[in-house]
Design brief:
putative membrane protein from Corynebacterium diphtheriae fold, transmembrane helix, DUF3239 domain-containing protein, DUF3239_dom_sf, DUF3239, globular, 2 domains
Length: 216
């Protein structure tokens, strides 16, 4: 599996890439929560009422928690990076609409769980819940092919050679150009599409796994 290189429309990605949008919301929420926590404990300490040792302790803990919330929000924004960087480091993978729910639908993707891309593939299935993909009808038709980039997540100290979480990220979230999406879909070898189709019946196993990822 190789990276599919294309020019990402950053403005379009910010509006449509649900991972970026969720990260932005988390960042704003973290910063606001941090500010509110600090203001709240300052009021408790300096507001009406008798000051005491416990009030000072609440002030210190509140300031620390507020700082932690704000730092987490800022760090979340920095860790995601720009959409172009996310796509440039994530290999192209086949995915299909595997299950349609009331407001969302599940994508099921064939992924390589090896950290080293030069090794023979260690195939796996990864799933992700999304709410919309540009160019796709609502609700989408089950089985629709969706070219994605496999966004690698975490590894463990016990197994540094394999990814423990992989998230399919639609190419269509990064560009309004339907020709680019079509070219990405056609760039995926037929044997990978066939392997994914032959294992779609394992969706329940993927959903039951800890990180929505199983090894075939």
């Amino acid at each position: 599996m190789k990276v599919f290189t294309f020019d990402v429309d950053e403005e379009f990605a910010r509006a449509n890439n649900e991972f970026i949008r969720n990260t932005r919301q988390f960042r704003v929420s973290g910063i606001l929560l941090g500010i509110l926590a600090v203001l709240g404990v300052i009021y408790v300490y300096f507001g009406p009422g008798e000051q005491s040792a416990w009030a000072l302790m609440v002030l210190i803990v509140g300031v620390l928690l507020g700082g932690a919330f704000a730092a987490a929000g800022i760090a979340a924004g920095k860790s995601s990076g720009k959409a172009q960087e996310m796509y440039d480091r994530s290999p192209l993978v086949p995915a299909v609409v595997a299950e349609v729910q009331e407001k969302n639908f599940l994508l099921l993707a064939l992924v390589n769980t090896n950290v080293d891309p030069e090794l023979p593939p260690r195939w796996g299935l990864a799933a992700v819940k999304v709410s919309a993909i540009p160019g796709l009808p609502t609700p989408p038709k089950p089985g629709t092919k969706i070219p994605c980039a496999a966004l690698h997540g975490q590894r463990t100290s016990r197994d540094k050679d394999h990814w423990q979480s992989i998230t399919p990220m639609p190419i269509a979230w990064g560009t309004p150009d339907e020709d680019v999406v079509t070219f990405a879909r056609k760039s995926i070898p037929n044997d990978q599409w066939n392997k994914l189709d032959n294992n779609r019946n394992k969706l329940d196993d993927v959903k039951a796994s800890a990180d929505n990822l199983i090894v075939l």
